[in-house]
Amino acid sequence: MEILATFFQGIDTVSIISLIIAGIITMLMAVIGHFLKQVNRQLEDLSKAIVNLQITLSTEQTNIIHLKAQCDNHSRKVDEKIDEFNRSIDDHELRITMIEKDVSRMEKEK
Is the pTM above the cut of 0.90? Predict the structure, then answer.
């Protein structure tokens, strides 16, 4: 105790309070610095997550465009097939009509 007393004899009260306040401020700054490091790490992790989400979004948009093109191509092919079947039905209808006329004419000739 006497060592502290002799140490503090040459220092006035204002200086002691200033040292204590400086120590407290230093500790507070260390705590704030620690929390800022954690915030910085979290921001870096969030930035990486955002970049990954942007990459995923771009990939998905590309996939959607590709699938849309495939659907359009398939739709075009289906439409062509339907048109082909319609032409075939029209041809058959015409033939049936001609056969009916021939049959009708043959029956009249009898």
Answer: no
